[in-house]
């Protein structure tokens, strides 16, 4: 049968009010529109539901059976739709996020604090792991979404860039490169370097930058945690390259950072499984992280740190 919810609602209103005009006032339709809707429903069902006289509208036996059942069914339908709508507006529950160590240490604290203040009923669980683990966790639905360093060559995810940041030179204050007026990639030629290993999403990008700029360096140490770069450079083991998000430098250390020309950036991206919707709570936190990335970008543009 090709009838509509609207036709059923109109019929129930007429059954309850006993009048086309009164039913129209209740549901916001003209008397003629109500009459037309009832005629369409009766034609579709192939049975008369109402007996009309000049004074009143009476239910037939079939109409009485239909009205009794429809009132309950339409009420249940309305309750179900309201419940679904309420779920769509829900801002509670647990949201699980995975991010690499640098992102977790320097971007996520602001995101977590802002989320806690804005959505006190949402519990956010942050998992601090290497980038490959983050990708696998999103792929396996162990977390709601992740924050990674792009670009990525994968069709498994949907991406949302949130922040571009430059790679910087990290060196001692007494290093010869600390004193040059403009620092260029070619000035790294032949230098001894300490870099993060390939668990970091940045390492491949740094390798690509050195290759593109035709610079050869001597990599003497590859470490896992970005905080280890600072004491190694301070000890004179080598200079390093790090993303701007790793700032600020530890206080009281004889270290400095320099912009490297031409500027080469890395992109931080939100990722989630392709063609999979986030829960309302996860969607709210996704938007909050995106907003915090925009705020950080604006702050750096107005107050450069290096």
UniProtKB/TrEMBL annotation:
The keyword DNA-binding applies. Transmembrane segments: none annotated. It comes from the Bacteria. The keyword Protease does not apply. One of its GO terms (cellular component) is cytosol. Residues 1-60 form the HTH lysR-type domain. Pfam families: HTH_1, LysR_substrate. Keywords: DNA-binding, Transcription, Transcription regulation. One of its GO terms (molecular function) is DNA binding. Belongs to the LysR transcriptional regulatory family. PANTHER family: HTH-TYPE TRANSCRIPTIONAL REGULATOR YBHD, LYSR FAMILY TRANSCRIPTIONAL REGULATOR. This is LysR family transcriptional regulator. It comes from [Pantoea] beijingensis. The lineage of its organism: Bacteria, Pseudomonadati, Pseudomonadota, Gammaproteobacteria, Enterobacterales.
